[in-house]
TrEMBL record:
It comes from Gracilariopsis lemaneiformis (Red alga). Residues 4-120 form the Response regulatory domain. Probable promoter-specific protein mediating the interaction between DNA and RNA polymerase. It holds the Pfam family Response_reg. The gene is tctD. This is Probable transcriptional regulator ycf27. Signal peptide: none annotated. The modification 4-aspartylphosphate is found at residue 53.
Length: 216
C-alpha cells in the first residue's frame, strides 16, 4: 500500500512541484495551502507523514506542530519541516516542538526522498521490535552501554522513551519533568550522540540495542 503524505505550503508552485515529484516516487500525496487548511485535512486524509513550511498565513508551521503533538489521535504522525528559516535557533525550536527532520530551502529533491525513506524505515524498525520481549527490556543500563557511557542516567531514560516513540509531552508526564526540561534533554541527546533529528536518535538506540542482543 502506498504511503500517504500531506504537504503544506503557501507557495503553490513549490507545493505542486513537490507533490508531483513525490507521486513519481510512488507516494500518495495530498496538499494544503496553509497550516489551518492542513490541520483540517489531517484527520480526514490520515497521512503517514506530513511535510510543512513554517512561514504561512492563518497558522504557521510551529503552531501546527504544537497542535498535532498535543492531539491524542495525531501526535505520532512524523513531521518534516521544509522551510527557508535556516538559523540554528529555528532548527532547535523545530526539534524541540517535535519535528522529525528539518530541511532548508532551497533543497535537493533527492535529499527529501532520503529523509522520508529514513523516517519510514525507522518506523518499520520500531514496529518490528516494539512488541518484542527483549525490546521491553530496553532500559537505562542497556542504553548506557550502547552509547559508550556518554550519557547520564536521566538522559539514558529519556533516550529509551524516545526510542519507544514517546513525544516530549509524554516523556514529561512519565518522568515528572517540565516540558521545557525535556526539550533541553532531547537537544543535549542530539548533540552527544551526533544525530541530526529525533528519528535518527531513536534509530540509533534501536539499532545499537538489537545489534548487541542479536541472536538472543
Amino acid at each position: 500500500m502506498k504511503k500517504k503524505i500531506l504537504i503544506i505550503d503557501d507557495d503553490m508552485y513549490l507545493l505542486n512541484s513537490i507533490a508531483s515529484y513525490l507521486r513519481s516516487e510512488d507516494f500518495q500525496v495530498d496538499i494544503a495551502k496553509n497550516g489551518y487548511s492542513g490541520l483540517q485535512k489531517i484527520s480526514s486524509y490520515q497521512p503517514n507523514l506530513i511535510i510543512t513550511d513554517i512561514m504561512m498565513p492563518h497558522l504557521d508551521g510551529y503552531d501546527l506542530i504544537k497542535k498535532i503533538r498535543t492531539n491524542k489521535t495525531l501526535h505520532k504522525i512524523p513531521i518534516i519541516l521544509l522551510t527557508a528559516k535556516g538559523m540554528t535557533n529555528d532548527r532547535i525550536l523545530g526539534y524541540n516542538l517535535g519535528c522529525n527532520a528539518y530541511l532548508t530551502k532551497p533543497f535537493y529533491p533527492q535529499e527529501l526522498i532520503a529523509i522520508i525513506k529514513n523516517i519510514f524505515n525507522s518506523i518499520e524498525l520500531s514496529n518490528k521490535y516494539i512488541n518484542n520481549k527483549s525490546f521491553k527490556e530496553l532500559n537505562t543500563n542497556s542504553i548506557n552501554d550502547l552509547i559508550l557511557n556518554k550519557l547520564t542516567n536521566r538522559e539514558c531514560k529519556i533516550l529509551s522513551l524516545v526510542a519507544k516513540g514517546y513525544m516530549n509531552k509524554e516523556i514529561a508526564n512519565e518522568m515528572k519533568l517540565s516540558l521545557r526540561n525535556v526539550e533541553k534533554y532531547v537537544s543535549r541527546l542530539l548533540q552527544k550522540t551526533g544525530t541530526r533529528n529525533r528519528t535518527e536518535l531513536a534509530k540509533l538506540a534501536l539499532l545499537t540495542y538489537f545489534n548487541i542482543h542479536k541472536g538472543e
